[in-house]
Write a structure and sequence with these properties.
Blueprint lengths: L8 E4 L6 H11 L4 E3 L2 E3 L13 E3 L2 H9 L3 E7 L2 E6 H9 L3 E5 L2 H8 L6 E6 L3 H11 L4 H20 L5 E4 L3 H25 L3
Helix pairs in contact: 1-7, 5-6
The structure holds guanosine-5'-monophosphate.
Guanosine-5'-monophosphate binds next to strand 5, strand 6 and helix 4.
Length: 203
């Protein structure tokens, strides 16, 4: 990444793999370093999700017009809903000289790979699909139909992740503390670089 711009950081992995927990831990520990790219989605809010913080909840019609106006870096259809990263969401974080975290699906990753964003790619992998199923059921936020759809998508996503070479980071999340310390290891040099950069800029 350019000298004075923190590297964006793309997180990808099946829902239920523990991505959100790891992202939250990272953002809590390094408040000064990371910012979250708030995606748009047409799905309904879940649990305690807050509009504008977890997602920008929107309608398909509004989102399709914004995509038509070229306002999105990438977008994808996932489990019957549209999701997308707006240019504004990423620029907001990068302009503050923070590493921008994108939490996106495999289709989004494929689109980002074709852009010049050049992020650090981190794939979070569940130890096996049965664990994923258990986590999705315990979460109690999805219908049976939605769970089955998510598991089917997860199988496809895992195949793609396993096909990726060494230029990306793959972290198996069996134990959240172990996975988190691997994540810190992967990001430590960029975290240091961003802190230096922010210090020099008096941020
Ligand atoms: P969930 O409905 O569980 O919040 O998210 C479902 C999937 O959509 C997750 O894999 C998540 O990473 C992905 N996702 C969330 N935001 C975006 C986005 O802006 N773009 C893409 N391509 N995927 C997203």
């Amino acid at each position: 990444m350019a000298d004075n711009i923190p590297s964006p950081c793309v997180f990808c992995g099946p829902s239920g793999a523990g991505k959100s927990t790891l992202i939250k831990k990272l953002m809590d520990e390094y408040k000064d370093v990371f910012g979250f790219s708030v995606s748009h989605t047409t799905r309904k809010p879940r649990g305690s999700e807050v509009d504008g913080k977890d997602y920008h909840f929107t309608t398909r019609e509004d989102m399709l017009s914004a995509i038509g106006r070229g306002e999105f870096i990438e977008h994808a259809e996932f489990s019957g809903n549209l999701y997308g990263t707006s240019k504004a969401a990423v620029n907001l974080v990068l302009n503050e000289r923070r590493m921008c975290i994108l939490d996106i699906d495999v289709q989004g990753v494929k689109s980002i790979m074709k852009t010049d964003l050049n992020p650090i790619y981190i794939f979070i992998i569940p130890p096996d699909i049965k664990v994923l199923e258990k986590r999705l059921r315990e979460r109690k936020t999805d219908s049976e139909e939605a769970i089955l759809k998510r598991l089917e998508t997860a199988t496809r996503e895992l195949k793609f992740i396993h096909e990726q070479g060494d230029s990306v980071h793959k972290i198996i999340n069996n134990d959240v503390e172990v996975a988190y310390s691997k994540l810190q290891g992967v990001l430590s040099s960029e975290i240091g670089r961003v802190r230096d950069m922010r210090f020099k800029l008096n941020l």
